[in-house]
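Hi R.,

Here are the chain sequences for the assembly we discussed:
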Amino acid sequence: MATEFTGTGDPARSMALLWRVPLNGAARPGPRPTLDVDRIVAAAVRLADAEGLAALSMRRVATDLGVGAMTLYSHVPGKGELVDLMLDAVLAELYPDEALVVAGDWRNRLSTVARANWDFFVRHPWALHLATGRPPLGPHLMRKYELELRAVDGLGLPEVEMDLLVTLVTGFVRGAVGGVQEKADAERVTGITEDQWWAATEPYVAQVLDAERFPTAARVGPVAGEELGAGDPRRSFEFGLDRLLDGIGVLVGQKR
Amino acid sequence: MATEFTGTGDPARSMALLWRVPLNGAARPGPRPTLDVDRIVAAAVRLADAEGLAALSMRRVATDLGVGAMTLYSHVPGKGELVDLMLDAVLAELYPDEALVVAGDWRNRLSTVARANWDFFVRHPWALHLATGRPPLGPHLMRKYELELRAVDGLGLPEVEMDLLVTLVTGFVRGAVGGVQEKADAERVTGITEDQWWAATEPYVAQVLDAERFPTAARVGPVAGEELGAGDPRRSFEFGLDRLLDGIGVLVGQKR
DNA sequence: AGGAGTACCGTACGCCGTACGGAGTCACTC
DNA sequence: GAGTGACTCCGTACGGCGTACGGTACTCCT
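And here is the predicted structure of the full complex:
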C-alpha cells in the first residue's frame, strides 16, 4: 500500500483547486465537460473508503467514472493533488455541530476533539497513510484547525502552547486509530484474519518467548494479548486519552 | 512512497527467517551461495536510510548488491518478508545499554524509552511508514518489548496497563517524529525546500485566512508558525512528553 | 469563417513485484 | 563413478502503476 504525500504539487494550482477558484471567465471554449473535480474526488474517496489507499489508482478511479484514464488529467494535475482534494473533502464531515467543540470545560472540549478525530479516521482509514508534512490548506482543514484551537482557547495559554496541545491530542488519536486499523488493513491485504494469523504465529512465539531471556514480556504479553486482543479496540484509546488529559490538566491547572 | 505492511508472509517461514533458523542440515546441495539474508537486509536498510522507503525496490537492492533481481528470491520470499527483516535488524540498535532503561524512577525510565525511540525513528525514518499491525516478532522486537516493559515494572500497575503505557509512550514518539520527518521527506520527494514551499504557499494562505471566519487560527497560526517553524524540531516532542509523563504520574501516584 | 483553447482519450515509456523456467553446481545415493 | 535431485543464480515476461505526448472533436471569441 502507498503512503501518499499531500502538498506535492504547485502551491498556486493546489490552492486554486482546494478553494475551487473558477478558472477563467464563465465562458470557456471547448466541449461541455462531462466530468468535474467534485465527481472525481467523490469517486476517489468512495474507492479509498471501500478498498484502501493501495487500490486507489488513476486508472481505477477513471474506470469507476466510466471515462478514460487520461481524462482525469484535464481536471486534476496529478495523483498528489487528487489526494489533497480527497483529504480536504472528507474533513468537511468533522464537527457538524460547531458549538459542541466549545461546550463545557476544556476537558470536555478536548475529549470532543479526540472523539471526533477517532470517528473520522475510523470512517476514512486511508487518511492515516497520508504524510501531511505539507498539509493541503483547504477550507475544511482551516476550519478543523480553527475549531480545535477554540477548544483550548481562553485557558490563559500562550498561542504556541495552544497549537502544541491541538497537535498533541490529534496526533495521539491518529496513533491510536492506527494501532487498531492496521490490524484490519492487514486482514484485507493478506486475506488472513487476525485469529488465523495468531493461530499460525503463536506456536512459534511460544517457542521463542522464554521466561529467562524475556521475563517481563513473558508475564505481560499473554495477559495483554488476551485482554486487549479480545476486548474493545477503544480501550487503548480511552486509556491513553485519560492519561493525556490528566497531563494537560497539570499544565492548565498551574496556569490558573 | 509506500506504506509497507509487516507480517504479510507465511508466519512459519517469516519466524524462521527472523530467528535465523538454519534451513536443513549443514550440508546442502547446490553451489555455494554468494549472497545471504544478512547482506540483503543490510543493503536494503542502507538504501532505505539513504533514499527512503519509496526508493526501496527489489531491483534496486539487487543492483546495489551486484546480482540479478530474481536472485534475491532465493533468500527471501518477497518484499514483505524483507521489510520484516529490515525492521527487526535495525531494532537491534535500540538500548545498547540495557541498564539505562531501568535506571532511576519511572519518569526517568519512560523518558529514556521515549528518547531512544525518537533517536531510532530519526535514524531510520522509513520505519515510520511501516504498518506493524502484524509485527515481525523477531529477537530484537522481543527485546525492545521486554526492555520497555521493564521501565514500567514494579509500579504496582496491572499487566494490561503496563502494556498500554508502553504503547502510549512509543506511539506518541512515533507521531512526534512523524510530524518532523514528513517535512524532511517532502523536501526529498518534491525537491522543494520547506522555505520555498512556504514562500509559495503563504500568499494564498494570507488571502484565505481571514480573521472573521477563522479568528483563532488567524491569531494562533502565525505565532505557532514562527516559533515552531524556525525553532527546534524537538520542541513539540519535549512539550508532548512532559504532558504525557505528567498524566502518567497521576495514574502512578494514585496506585501508590 | 477561422483561430484558439479545451475535453476526452489511445498509445507508450519506464518503473514496480514476482511467476516461471532454464542453466550451472554441488552433495548425496547406488 | 555415474546419476539424481536440490539448490543458486537470473533472463524473460506479465500485469500493474503514474503520466508525457499528441490527436480529434468541440465550442467560444474575434
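The CA atoms of residues 49 and 124 of chain A lie 6 Å apart. Strands of chain A lie at 4-5, 130-131.

Let me know if anything looks off.

Best,
T.
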